[in-house]
Write a structure and sequence with these properties.
The protein is about 55% helix and about 10% strand. The chain is mainly alpha-helical. The longest helix is centred in the N-terminal third of the chain and has 25 residues, at about 1-25.
Length: about 150
């Protein structure tokens, strides 16, 4: 019973936090970046969601990060080392693109495959073995929202 009653409130809170995060990106309190993999995922979303996400992109005006052979190689290393399930290559690619481009913080709501302290440690460890020494921090939007 508790889960059923609290579920809408949880979704409402996530939506509010996400909106606040996007607003901070629009104001350039955070520098937003977006990988071409995310754009590809958006293109395959159902029409109402796709339209909404395209509006968000226009609103926050992120810098586009492109895939590269280096990112593909690192992504494959994440899969080979079982940092992420082999059935989720796009999730591995998101992280690889961020590391190759020297991004400081990757923001995601994907707690299952990306936002997880143990996975963050493993992503960074494999990246070091592959020659990347810039540490990537992985957080949810909630961790970036603060009220001063």
């Amino acid at each position: 019973m508790f889960g059923v009653l609290s579920l809408p409130k949880i979704h409402q809170t996530i939506e509010q936090i996400t909106f606040m995060f996007f607003e901070l990106c629009r104001k350039r309190e955070f520098e937003p970046y977006l990988s071409n993999g995310v754009l590809n995922e958006i293109q395959h979303a159902k029409a109402p969601l796709r339209k909404r996400l395209e509006e968000v992109i226009r609103y926050i005006k992120p810098t586009l990060l492109t895939a590269s052979p280096e990112a593909d190689s690192l992504s494959n290393a994440f899969l080979r080392e079982h940092v992420i399930p082999t059935s989720m290559p796009e999730d591995a690619r998101h992280v690889a693109i961020a590391i190759v481009h020297g991004i400081d913080v990757l923001v995601s709501w994907n707690f299952r495959h990306i936002v997880n302290i143990r996975r963050e440690e493993r992503f960074n460890a494999v990246a070091v073995l592959e020659g990347y020494h810039h540490r990537l921090q992985i957080v949810s939007p909630k961790e970036l929202i603060y009220g001063d």
